[in-house]
Amino acid sequence: MEKITLSITGMSCNHCVNKVENALNEQDGVEKVKVNLKKGTAVVKFDESKQTLDQLTAAVSEVGYEAIPEN
Ligand SMILES: [Cu+2]
User: Fold this and answer.
1) Residue ranges of the HMA domain (predicted)?
2) Who is most buried in 29, 47, 54, 58, counting CB within 10 A?
3) What is the CA(71)–ligand 1 centre distance, in A?
């Protein structure tokens, strides 16, 4: 299991948080997602044999936000 933090640009309210959370939760192998609106981050726990960092950032940009890995 891998745990990463994404810096998310463009979130302004809880609606944005839900969109990002849902987009990440829908991805294969994603176990847990925690989005923090104030910090502008998403912490994602996922199975690295089923999911990639590139695919996760792509899923976020598909719903209209920019995701950059912090670690
Ligand atoms: Cu919003």
Assistant:
1) 2-68
2) 29
3) 25
List Cα–Cα distances, 64 to 10, 16, 21, 59, 60, in angstroms.
8, 9, 13, 9, 7
pLDDT for 1-44, tens place per residue? 999 999 999 999 999 999 999 999 999 999 999 999 999 999 99
- Alpha carbon of 49 to ligand 1 centroid (Å): 32
Give pTM, 2 decimals.
0.95
Residue 16 Cα to ligand 1 midpoint, Å, equals 4
> Which domains can be identified in the chain, with CATH numbers?
2-69 (3.30.70.100)
- Which strand (E) or helix (H) includes residue 62? helix 53-62
Distance from the alpha carbon of residue 12 to the mean position of ligand 1, in angstroms:
4
